Amino acid sequence: MFKHTHPYAPYIPKETKKLIVGTLPPPRFTTGELKDGDVDFCYGSRDGQLWIILDRIFNLNLQFETTQEAIQQRKNFLKNNHIGICDMVDYALREKIDASDLGMKEVKLRNMIQILKENPSVETLLFTGGNSKNGPEYFFRKHIRDHKEIQLKKVSDEVPRIHQFNLDNRVITTVSLTAPSGAANRAVGGMQYYKYLKQKNPEMSTLDFRVLQYQPYFK
Description:
Number of strands: 9
Order of helices and strands: EEHHHEEEHEHEEEHHH
Largest sheet: 6 strands, mixed
CATH class: Alpha Beta
Distance between the termini: 41 Å
Strand content: 15-25%
Number of domains: 1
Number of helices: 8
CATH topology: Uracil-DNA Glycosylase, subunit E
Strand order of the largest sheet: 3-2-6-9-8-7
């Protein structure tokens, strides 16, 4: 079994208001066998779309290469916009060395509630995926089972689904965004709103759709 350990500590600058919450980067980030075009930082896979989406929303002119400058660009953006990153998974075991969420076994979760208590400025959790098995919202729900005082209350059942909960007299909002990965493109293609937009504009891509979906929650 391969022990897939998260290679990055949570990145939570002072006065962070929004936390991006995923699961684990691909195993090559744990082993250090990066590909050309990977960035050695959270969501740095050349196959992922999060930084492409944010680059378009904020006109960042990011580099997509394995350089220190590319890492620093991303850190500067996060700090300047009061955004942090803290994935749910500390480590997991895998029989097959791949990046699938479903392939994770014996998952050890990070203590997100404690992390939120240590960072009282955080107001929003932006899940990069929903409540499907081994997704970030799924793991968060599993985590709070040990915290009976925390109850997720539904705000909106439309995608992206929104919930809220109370923690130490503060209200924290969760937003379950469509995953910024190629694997989720089929799900996007099946969404009625995407079909509606595609009908109005045949040039609309699944990436364009994510940019539209993500923008109001990151701005």
